[in-house]
Design a protein that fits this description.
alpha+beta
Length: about 375
């Protein structure tokens, strides 16, 4: 039985259709690629008797060993312990530290907040603060600032004198930040915006006139990033108080922090996890009753100047920081390893490639549609 030959035009249309499909798949891949970031390596941690404590995002990982009453920080690049502090650490669940590590504050389960200061002789001196919910330590370790959970006044303490020496309108924004790198300026969130206070004169240098929830200070002190109630990120010039850039940020922002060179902003986010039975329950109107809700936690990394997406990495709590300008460090879910994520470079070329793929896909689809319509017209005429 003879087979009917396939017309060359029909083969041409099929090839065009296949090429158009591949072009659309390539377009989808290039647009989605910025989110596909894989860990470069994992550093196993052999710390069987240690437990991690909460630290502000962007701060070094901290672990405690209750049996030895010690607290130590981990180097994100090597996983080695450093800066070991001896003392009663059994009920410590959160730590805030100065950049110099001469001063840190520990939060206890009973509400006690203790300031630890390393003196020139090497012997730590401790004193208690009021039941503050948020505390920031100046980079030089000479001052701490803090306030209660519902207070809108930030109080300044002199570490050497162990007493309160001033107060400022506003709160610390819940990110563990506050002091600028030179330890001469304090930032607080007020109803007018973020106020930058001169600690010598106790007067504001600038007011960044935009109501915000969170902020982060760049390592060089020249820039400050904010996130408002609509999760919009704004980059500010701290010398002039003027806006440099503004762009949409990720939803449900929790904390913000800069990379060492200030070129990237990390934003921790938390989304409620949803499952297939959640959809069925809402469809049939079933009540969920009392249950514990789980959250999907991740860190979104943005280019600070443009807002371009540099990737999203899973994280657990606020234990996340930049190991260097191109690497993000997070803890594994089980806390037995440090994960190092290599961040992609700027996405300008990637953006051009994505739009080029989209253009090719549209052209091929148009040609395929025209050839198909022409073939149907010829068929009808025959």
């Amino acid at each position: 039985m003879a087979t009917t030959p396939v017309h060359p035009r029909k083969i041409f249309r099929r090839v065009l259709g296949l090429l158009a499909l591949l072009a659309w798949l390539g377009t989808a891949w290039t647009f989605w690629q910025p989110r596909l970031v894989q860990p470069r390596t994992k550093l196993p941690l052999d710390l069987p008797s240690h437990s991690f404590v909460t630290v502000p995002a962007g701060s070094p990982f901290a672990v405690i060993n209750p049996s030895k009453d010690e607290l130590a920080f981990l180097d994100a690049a090597s996983g080695q312990k450093s800066g070991v502090l001896k003392g009663d650490m059994k009920e410590v669940y959160r730590v805030a530290e100065a950049h110099s590590r001469k001063t840190l504050a520990t939060f206890m389960l009973d509400g006690t907040v203790t300031v630890w200061h390393q003196t020139d002789t090497g012997k730590p001196v401790t004193f208690s603060l009021p039941a503050y919910a948020y505390v920031a330590c100046s980079p030089d370790g000479q001052m701490v600032a803090g306030h209660g959970p519902k207070e809108n006044t930030t109080r300044l303490w002199d570490v050497a004198a162990q007493k309160e020496v001033g107060s400022f309108d506003g709160h610390l924004g819940g990110t563990g930040a506050g002091f600028f790198p030179d330890s001469r300026t304090l930032a607080t969130v007020t109803g007018e915006g973020v106020k930058l206070w001169d600690l010598a004169t106790r007067r504001p240098r600038h007011t960044l006139a935009h109501r915000v929830r969170l902020y982060a200070i760049a390592p060089d002190g020249q820039s400050l990033a904010t996130s408002d109630a609509g999760d919009r990120v704004t980059l500010w010039d701290c010398a002039t108080g003027q806006e440099r850039a503004s762009y949409p940020g990720p939803d449900n922002a929790q904390m913000m922090f800069f990379s060492p060179d200030g070129s990237k902003v990390g934003i921790t986010v938390a989304h409620p996890n949803s499952t297939w039975h959640d959809g069925l329950s809402s469809w049939f109107g079933g009540g969920r009753g009392f249950e514990l809700m789980s959250f999907k936690e991740e860190t979104a990394v943005l280019d600070a100047a443009t807002g371009q997406d540099c990737g999203r990495m899973p994280c657990f709590g606020s234990n996340v920081l930049f190991a260097d300008d191109k690497t993000l460090a997070t803890l594994s879910k089980t806390g037995d390893a440090i994960q190092l994520w290599e961040l992609p470079p700027g996405r300008a070329l990637q953006g051009v490639g994505a739009w080029a793929c989209l253009g090719v896909a549209l052209v091929l689809t148009g040609i395929w549609w025209y050839a198909r319509a022409a073939g149907q017209k010829v068929k009808r005429e025959i």
